[in-house]
């Protein structure tokens, strides 16, 4: 868990929640840049990620509202 002051209050975040915030921001930036709403996503991870880390990344995508169709390492 990560403890942080979020909007003036202390809050705990799971690593997947932090990753989901990053993925959601990347989604917004990409859609703004290309001018099209994207439905499906492919996410890349480091080659040394194990299965549980890949699953955590997939979970972060779901939390961010993404339809992650594939994880590439």
UniProtKB/TrEMBL annotation:
- Keyword Metal-binding applies: no
Q: Which UniProt keywords apply?
A: ATP-binding, Nucleotide-binding
The entry lists its GO molecular-function terms as:
ATP binding; ATP-dependent protein folding chaperone
Q: What is this protein called?
A: Uncharacterized protein
Query: Which family, according to UniProt?
Result: Belongs to the heat shock protein 70 family.
The UniProt record lists the keyword Glycoprotein: no
Organism whose genome encodes this protein? Saponaria officinalis (Common soapwort)
One Pfam match:
HSP70
Specify the domain of life of the species encoding this protein: Eukaryota
Family matches, as SUPFAM superfamilies = Actin-like ATPase domain
């Amino acid at each position: 868990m990560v403890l942080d002051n979020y909007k003036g209050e202390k809050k705990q975040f799971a690593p997947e929640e932090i990753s989901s915030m990053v993925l959601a921001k990347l989604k917004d930036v990409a859609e703004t840049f290309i001018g099209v709403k994207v439905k499906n996503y492919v996410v890349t991870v480091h080659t040394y990620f194990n299965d549980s880390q890949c699953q955590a990344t997939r979970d972060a995508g779901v939390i961010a509202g993404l339809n992650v169709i594939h994880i590439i390492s």
